[in-house]
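FIELD: query
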Amino acid sequence: MRNQRVWYHYLEDPYLHDSTDLVQLALCALPLFLLLLGIGSAAIQSACSRAVAGEAPREGSPARLRPVLAVYVLRALVVWPLPVIVAVVADRFTGYHLDTPLPLERGTWPYILVKYSPLAALFVAVLLRLALTLAPAAAADGLGARAALRRSWSLTWTRVGAARVVALAVPLVALTAGLLRLVTQVALPLRPLVRGLLEDATGNFFAAYYAGILAPVIVGILVTAAVTVPLTCTAFAALYDRLSPLRRSPAAC
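FIELD: result
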């Protein structure tokens, strides 16, 4: 973007901003971001599970991260493809980009059902996500990825397990959303500061503008994650530790 701006300035032509470069940069950085997010979350989950179990750190801890990281991957593959596919299909049949009401006529029941089907798919995804919430704690406890998913499913789909998972997840979600909103608002003064510093350093107004917009959001995400991720991992590890004896007791009897 900076090179394009310099080139257009050399030609004495106005620089027309094109967001394609930013989109490509974000897509290229997304796998690295997801990998770092998964490794960090797996390390925190393993540490919190050991703390709940009263275990001291052992050698070979990095190897114990692999099942937890595999759980994150498998759980994402189970939960998120459905809402994404349904949203894409619904947009294809009901999106505003269509010049004609075909293939579904606007205002009809099929159109309404298809248009709002992503909400139903999202509801199903939330239920699946709740049912598999305890899987990372199970993997940190020593189970394999698929066994951890099955254990979380069996523990959650009970009257006691479902009630406790929902009762724990709702306040944690509210805490995360509220803290993210609060910290982002407090960090808003960073927006003109970052924009001014980056524009002076690079001469690129557009890159500085987007960096200024993202700066408070990044600070909010980092602070919120630092506070809520260890708390969430510890809470669900403790819940998994409490539900496991309840699951084993009928077999023992």
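FIELD: remark
The mean pLDDT is 83.
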